[in-house]
């Protein structure tokens, strides 16, 4: 089974992708995390991606496709995948699907986890990350003060610029303007599973599985 998962910031799509990966033996491929890792490398591509990330510019479609291709090449062919945040733009749909076809990984279903705009803001602005081990934490759940050290390694915790109210607003604007047309395309094809993300993660997971089984 090969799946794409979409959702606005704070919808919990990463958590659901992890749960689906475990249940169905899928490789969770999260493009944002891949690019952050590459951006920390002292390579030509790493420097290019870091520069784009620093300038808050989107990674070019051709770079996204090639990075995904290299990542997918090492995933066993008998293991399914769940693509998190790709294709992200309308321009990525055809080249990514073509690349997946070449690798014998056609997409079976797309999942969209919806979430009210205000709830996205509320959830994301509580996120913080360790500057040493890069683990993520939620204020009020994993940490209680922003000055606390990382519970894992003791490193300093900071809030990414993308997770501030202004940062989240910009990211949501990009999502609704750039990615929702991709979601609409899979809806029109009859490939989209839609679930309400404004529930507990357990209920969201239950709803996704129910709809997958009914497909």
What is the number of helical segments per DSSP (H or I, 4+ residues)?
8
What class do helices, strands and sheet pairing give? alpha/beta
Secondary-structure element order, as H and E?
A: EHEHHHEHEHEEEHEH
Low-confidence stretches: none
Instruction: Give the termini distance in whole angstroms.
Output: 12 Å
| Number of self-contained structural domains | 2
What is the strand arrangement across the widest sheet? Answer: 2-3-1-4-8
Class of the largest domain, according to the CATH hierarchy? Alpha Beta
Number of strands: 8
The CATH architecture of the largest domain would be 3-Layer(aba) Sandwich
The value of Rg in angstroms is 17 Å
